[in-house]
């Protein structure tokens, strides 16, 4: 887990730099620090575990910080965006437009105009969206490239968040896909995207979902007006957030994908994509906040920090968790004997709880607290305007500079 970040002279370090020095560098706390070398290492690990035929796409919503995107653009094969804002950020990197896909329900007509004009793949979520894309394509005189996002007729076991099966706002129900394919008209049909669940730590469940996805895509491909050139199998790879979580085993997933590539997927001359967000960046980030008060209340010691749920909502347990569990955290600037404390943020709400009855080194006012697993769904997934506190800073640190000249796109 990411709480294995090293210490330098007793102080937690990110990218080789102690966090107290990083605090001075950015002008104070709170801040997010992302380790460039860990991002590179995670992609390298995935490349080694998965078949060479598999393309990696990064889900920008996990962490859209521009510096992170620029680094990732030299590591992965594509980006997936979910808004015009993310699209613009992606287009500002070295990622080619034809390797960017735009998914998500509720795309406005203005967003569709931007996407079609940019030449990215629009992943259709409904029949009405298809018709709007047709109108946009006609008005611009540009043949829009589209894929169908499919709501599968199965659900994924073990997923932290279910995005497929049953009634969903995401994608087109699998049984409706044939009628939608019949209405594509002059649009450039690219392929299918099936994303059934996220934050899954069970390799067997992910493998089962991938097999079911491939079977579904093959059935639908037989009804497509043109050959399928793109198959997005989704992702859903999870990361551990507590001591009782077991890290995902990539080996069986790689073996399963290799079998699918060598057998079923051979029937399609398609680019096969695994789309990941949290798994690529989540463990590379740390949220650092400073203790501003230490108080005792009826047997409980509280450490009050200058950050909170307005920056790191997920760590407070208010970002869709069914059962609240403490994220891993540490006193970054102390190695004193441990004590049981509750870490709370600076907001005037009892929801602002970052660590409930945790064993930490004794911390005093001025010490820094680091919350791990903060590289995904941190700043941009949090209510930063709540109570009017200033936004945190973000920085990407680490010595490794990826050489784009050595990178070859996965075809």
TrEMBL record:
It comes from Kutzneria chonburiensis. Its cofactor is pyridoxal 5'-phosphate. Keywords: Pyridoxal phosphate. PANTHER family: DIAMINOPIMELATE DECARBOXYLASE (PTHR43727), GROUP IV DECARBOXYLASE (PTHR43727:SF2). This is Pyridoxal-dependent decarboxylase, exosortase A system-associated. Residues 38-281 form the Orn/DAP/Arg decarboxylase 2 N-terminal domain. InterPro entries: Ala_racemase/Decarboxylase_C (IPR009006), DCO2ase_PEP1 (IPR017530), De-COase2_CS (IPR022657), De-COase2_N (IPR022644), Orn/DAP/Arg_de-COase (IPR000183), PLP-binding_barrel (IPR029066). It holds the Pfam family Orn_Arg_deC_N.
